[in-house]
Design a protein that fits this description.
Layout lengths: L2 E6 L3 H13 L2 E6 L2 H10 L5 E5 L10 H7 L4 E5 L4 H8 L5 E4 L4 H15 L4 E5 L3 H13 L3 E5 L2 H10 L3 E7 L7 H11 L6 E6 L5 H8 L4 E4 L4 H26 L9 H17 L3 E9 L2 H8 L1 H18 L4 E6 L2 E8 L2 H16 L3 E3 L2 E3 L3 E7 L5 H17 L5 E3 L7
Parallel strand pairs: 1-2, 1-3, 3-4, 4-5, 6-7, 6-8, 8-9, 9-10, 16-17
Antiparallel strand pairs: 11-13, 11-16, 12-13, 14-15
Length: about 425
Amino acid sequence: MADRLLVVEDSKPIATVIKQIARSLQYEVTIATSLAQVEEILQKDNDFFAATIDYSLPDALDGEAIPCVLSYGVPGIVLTGKMDDKTRQKILAQAVIDYIPKENSQAFLYLKRILQWQKTNHKNNILVVDDSSAARNHIVELLKRRNFSVFVANNGVQALATLKQHPEIKMVITDLEMPEMDGIELTNEIRKKYSREQLSVIGISGAENGIHSARFIKNGADDFLRKPFCPEEFYCRITQNIESLNNIAQLQIAANTDYLTELLNRRAFFNEAQSRINGYAKRHIAYGLAMIDIDHFKKVNDHYGHEAGDQVLRVLALYMRKHFGSGLIARLGGEEFAVLMPGIDEDQLYGKFEDFRRDLAVSSIPTGEQEISIAVSIGAVLNSTEPLPKQLNEADNALYHAKDNGRNQLCVSGMEDEH
């Protein structure tokens, strides 16, 4: 079900723009053009994810719609044509998500970003560390207003324990002055375990001495805020650091993922496979390493075209996820794929690879108006104690044996004559 947005706006052109923005983000939109209409709508139904609120309406010239919307528990973003300091302070004194001056087209671009953040911020986990419950609760309230998922700790020792329990935490906001372990020590300890690409740290202090910001940064913090801070500055710093982390994560995904199939690429497979093999060996888990190649793939491209060939590769990736979901799957390049698969014993592993080959052999792949049947050859090595490069070479040799022996078959290294 789509999230619902209440648009409180008496200007039809502006309401239309907001509606288009919201719909592009999959919001379901309801428009109110006056305070009376807002009250009428919310009295009947206040199940809205958020609202955009025009500061000045025909029957509410001085922001009266803001407390009205908020009183129904609907988070609000205020749009205002008034830019004086008194109006700004009046808006910020209320529990709004944000306010946006209607100065130019940038206002609507920023609104789109906020509406997008409100939908996605729950995926961003933030740990707030402060021994003062009042200060801690204030920061938590600000974060929850923006839909962040929040954890709390009273001091640095508790914070480290919470980080260990919840590796999904992306950011730590820590006060400086705390018992047992202060914010500087905590930041130093965090950086021993987590890189800047994994976790962002923002230091906070109410101390007058400006040296604390430099100390935080030099000990590994990404940013610093001096108390008391205004909500605008707080949100800007939080958002900037979260976006930076998310951008890094997206770049890492792009660097490790095959663009066509969204499987791991060759580089990522080589980086991860050896670590998994070491883990399987340590825990005495049986595993198989297989090389998979589509038979006569050049004929698919030549006869049906490269778009059809790309579709075949994408569908093959889906079949691999279906059969080898608990393993490590990669496209090494062209029509060549690799699988590292844990199992119970060699017979089970052999069965998994065979089930995959048979399932694919009896299936047809829709590509536009036509359907294509394909087969694969598989070369595998089971429970080898050799280093990864040598295992891959053995699997590759077994693959060539399968090709030479007639294709559409599985060949296991060292067992060529047994199956």
